[in-house]
Design a protein that fits this description.
The protein is an alpha/beta fold. The chain contains six helices and seven strands, in the order βαβααβαβββαβα. Helix 2 crosses helix 3. Bound molecules: flavin mononucleotide. The site of flavin mononucleotide (FMN) has 17 residues, from helix 1.
Length: 219
Amino acid sequence: MTTTRTANLLFVSSSLFNGQSKSREIAGEFIAGWTRDHPGGRVVERALAPSNIPHLSGATLAALGKAPDLRTQDEQAAVAFADSLIAEAEAADTIVIAAPMYNFTIPTTLKSWIDHIARAGRTFRYTAQGPEGLLKNKKVVVVVSRGGFYTGNAPAAAMDHQAPYLRTILGFLGLTDVSFIEVEGQAIGPDVAAKGLDAARAAAALLAGLPPQGLPLAA
Ligand SMILES: Cc1cc2nc3c(=O)[nH]c(=O)nc-3n(C[C@H](O)[C@H](O)[C@H](O)COP(=O)(O)O)c2cc1C
């Protein structure tokens, strides 16, 4: 008997403005295409509002180093939370990350998610040949949204500590099949913002294998 595994997508969102979030909107475009391609597929959202994720604390790190039966109730809860974030990432075939640029880098909530899931011996390990990422064989789509412009020859390109950082840490964890969608120019003015959003929408549709702007695919 053959069993078919349900396709599993983890959506990690991190904007402070969920309703109006551009990164969330464009991630949604990709996820809509993925859902069409994976009937019965499961989408799990991990929404990283500041109230939903603490900073990784010394207490949690100490708890992780203790034998499970020696942990206090608070320590058990902290470890269970970190374990659940890792389990979500491990279970996913596709991970979609919506990441606004805040002060030239990612939101602190997203950094905290990374701090919780980067665990030696579980999501990466050190070998004689160097570090090895253990979150393998997954596709990652990262939607980065910015007020300005940082791609190509943009004068501010060197100030982008968002996309290069995400590529580095995801690669460190074994996530090397990563596609970026940029939503740029969102703070420049309505026309520029709309153009940036349209370009990102088209990029998301292309990545999801959908016709851009709802046009029918050519026969
Ligand atoms: C706290 C904060 C810091 C920001 N810092 C930057 C920045 O350094 N560079 C930039 O281009 N835009 C910056 N922006 C603008 C956002 O990146 C832009 O509005 C983006 O669309 C936010 O993503 P979202 O719509 O998914 O929330 C900042 C916005 C906020 C709220």
